[in-house]
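Annotators were shown the component list below and the corresponding predicted structure, then asked to write short factual statements about the assembly.
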Amino acid sequence: MSEMMRLLRKDLRRLRWLLGLWILILVTRVTLVGEGASIGPDPFRSATAFREMAGMLAMLETLMMALLIARLVHDEPLVGMNAFWLTRPYHRAALFSEKLTFVLVALVLLPSAADVASMLWFHTGAAAQLAAASNYVPSHLTSALTFFVIAVLTASLGSFVLTIVGAVAMVIALGGVIISLSVLTAREPDQYGTLVIDSNPTAGLVLSAAFVIATSAVIVYQYRNRRRPIAIVLAVAALIVPMFVAAWWPWRLTPPPPTLGAWADRAVVRIDQQDPVELGRIGSDASGTRLVVAHVPIAGMPRDYFVRLAGVRSRLIMPDGTVIRTERTGSARRGSHRGITGADMPVSTLLDASVLNAPTSLYDAGSETWPPLVALSESQYAKYRGQTGRLEARFEFQVMRGIRRAVALRPAAGFDDGTSRFEIVGTARQVDGYSVEIRRWRAQSLVDPAFTPDDTFVLFNRARKSALTQRGEQRTGGIGIGVRAGGALTAALPYVFSRAGMGLDLAGSGTFSVNQTIALFPMDGSSPDAVDADWFSGAELMVLEARYAGVLTRSVSVDAFTIPAAPTN
Amino acid sequence: MEPVIAANNLSCRYRRTEAVRDLTFAVEPGTIFGLLGPNGAGKTTTIRALMNILRPSAGEVRVLGVNSRRLGAKELVEIGYVSENQQLPSWMTVRDLLAFCKPMYPTWDDGFAAKLVTDFDLPLNVRIARLSRGMRVKAALITALAYRPKLLVMDEPFSGLDPVVRDDLVRGVLERVGDGQWTVLLSSHDLDEVERLVDAIAFLDNGGLVLTEPLITLMSHFRRVEVTLPDGAAAAEAADPAWIGRSAAGRVVQFVHSAYTGPGSDLEIGARYPGARVDVDPMTLRDIFLAVARHTRGGNRLPSVNAEEVRS
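Structure shown to annotators:
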């Protein structure tokens, strides 16, 4: 038997009880993920309990991983001078290989196997398994390496725990200092934010890779040289350097954000100057801002596309030569005005059907979005109200695409969407309507952008050309895997970095998630005659998804643009 | 023949503290060498440096012909190590420990190990965590002896042990080393046991080497001298720097002669104290150690001894 195998056998024997507990935790997690996704109706208490248990289990898993690594490494500690192994004929390469093998098998491979089992519970295919594996394997690896590094720099469990507590306290304190400084030195916030939705996980990928390399280097160094002061310096560098590498990494490793199709080249944007509106002073002090918004229709946009947000960079040249410059994104929401660009997409339009209960929109029910064309100070408004000037505006429109999918209204019906699946768990006729229990699981690969489903559900009777919209939901279950207690810290990093003026987008950190809800379709406002038993038997579930499609950019000039003399309302 | 251990201007620092400075000594093959000194003298640091546990800040130690910094598994197969501070795998039973150690050493002798277990009356199926301190040292000693190492290094092995256990261990070591094939380096401040064991010693104090020489030579040139002066005679100051630890009470003057050569020294003392009665007694290692330690702690140094003169 080789020296490595002999050491491995020794550690397996020594840690057998802890390993047993570790496996029990993993099995519990698999069960919890499987069962937690389908707790059933009237679920609030159970769902909350399951989520609490899942959170507790994630924390327990992290603690157990830390304990196992500490016990494993400290049996042959690399710090101190009294360890038994130091004066025995150990080959350091064999010792390192043994510890690494143990960590990889017990603390990376086993949890990964649990993740596979959790996903198999939902009959996930190979593509989804591979996608999620590319995410959770590095996640387990980075967690294990973090504890491994701390273990090789400490001599005992006590010092290991104190080091972790100290490190966390230091990071929190550092974050607090950075945030405090940035708040104290904060400038006026930029009024023009980007409209491109680009959830780019490159920084997260680079950070993970750099962290794995850096921590591995510290561990190898310590096993080779056993010099703690230098190893500590390397470990601090391993903590800090990858963040800067990730923040300043110049190359994109993932696909670029989507762009609009050929229609975008032909689309025509104009300003409807018949109906500009001044919204009244914005801001509570005397130096408040006046915004002038107007209807900006887009011709040539396909029927299933719509604009969610607009950004404007404009200059209004007044007759006296004054140039009023404006750079703003965002929108003024005015329920009483007509839509500027088809700012949302009513279900009735999308399905070409009459809505029997309360009408709803795909994006934002009942509101319209008007872009701010001109922003004036109080003094400018007082001087130029009612006057006309030349407006030159450059628009950016955040364009979404409405995607429709029809699902038969029966259990197990559904559709696959890449590495995710949507399916109906059950349906039930209620006294005042209908309910559909829906499950959606999603596996995300390491390079997938962060994704938050933005779905609207509609019961649609194609023959009768009528629909019932969803008016509420009950969460009945749902759980994610690959989430650890350290996740909060990782989530805090981008914020700290952004406050420090550096970009660090760690999007795409999810792994596999299951959500189960009961969508409610009440018949309030509809005629009981119109929604009878036959209506439901002939209905199907329409899943309406608003998916980011790209940004449309246009420049528009208006020779005579009049600033309204008074707020319209 | 090359020494088994050769320290050459060895210095070791713990941050700003110089624990060992400029240490030079050699341990010849087949000898039992005692590294002696009070607590904090630098004995453990020296042993850690030669076992490659600690990196010397200057100088070097060669062990079995290899620089201690390069001491690896190949060399450690021939070295046994027992220390009062050593952390044995406490979760193992003695049987587990022996089974775990055995594959590391090609020369492991099961029969010898079994005999040592019997001789030391060690329970095989008890966890090391539950053993007494003496039993743990015995277990460590078995794992260090069972493969018949060329060099056995023992750092304060008798510290804190009861007399029976100490006697067991001393006999254990003496019996096994008696054939002269092993070399032993032993650090201790338990001088009674050391005196029974060692062939040569090095005295360390405050990180420095006070003296190093074979025990037989050492014992021969250290003598306790008591001079009883005649009535009315005044006690003269000590003239010879080799007379250390001088004290006077009434007509009696006492000191230690650190370079006693026999009749020549008697004549010298007689000339210094005419008409006085002079009693010269041999000293135990403990007495020599105490005298030397007290002397050197005052910043004094011992005069060098002419070995030829001592032998004559």
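Statements collected:
1. Confidence is low (pLDDT under 50) at residues 334-343, 482-509 of chain A.
2. Chain A touches chain B through 17 residues (CB under 8 Å).
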